[in-house]
Amino acid sequence: xxxxxxxxxTVIGIFSAVGISNATLWxxxxxxxxxxxxxxxxxxxxxxxxTSGYDTDGRMTWAEATTWADQLIFGGYDDWRLPxxxxxxxxxxxxxxxxxxxxxxxxxxHLFYDELGGIAGASIYDSSDPDLAMFxxxxxxxxxxxxxxxxxxxxYWTSTYLPSxxxxxxxxxxxxxxxxxxxxxxxxxxxxxxxxxxxxxxxxPATMLLLGGGLLxxxxxxxxxxxxxxQWIYRDVSPSSMSTGIFDPINHLKTPSQYH
Length: 260
Known about the structure:
- The protein has about 260 residues and is α+β, with helices and mostly antiparallel strands.
- The chain is globular, with a radius of gyration of 20 Å.
- It has six helices and ten strands, in the order αβββαααβββββββαα.
């Protein structure tokens, strides 16, 4: 009996460890991914405004992006919205123009750092996390100007307003930064809704790998954000510009070749 109880406890421990460490993203089918840590559902297509034919490239002003999300009906749900940059308890947002990285308490920050293994200063596509394959069309690449010089990247709008700067917060999957832009800027949008959706759950790839490993379930706990010293991220930025004036980390990144 003692051996049976010990074996039962081991099995329970395995599944508990899996639940704590990895069971946070679920493919609900029909183009929707559920995050049970934040109790929100993401569109699987991170540029659906383009692929659906609504917009020519998916880049929109804040007002256009808000209208698109408000009018969106997908999977039988009509309560889609822009992600928020606030923390789960309603405080924040965290971040500032010279402290824009490793902010994993917003909805997109949590997705980038905790769920998809993003690293500050690097594109999400530098991540080897298998859960990245659950999504499509995440705008995480850097682009260059026609003359070959570094251009930047287009991040995603949030619904959160920054009144002191008259801007709205964004999150960039090209480098994991969270800051703000003028509302007439044209950047990408990604819809999310509160709660789960009614569909048969398919566990994320990482969960399946861990289950297949048996006792390896004890080996892992929730992925932690990868902290880096952000001073190497900036390019041609003087110390004075880091503390004063308008500074947008998207436009002061190193080129991809400088990351390595």
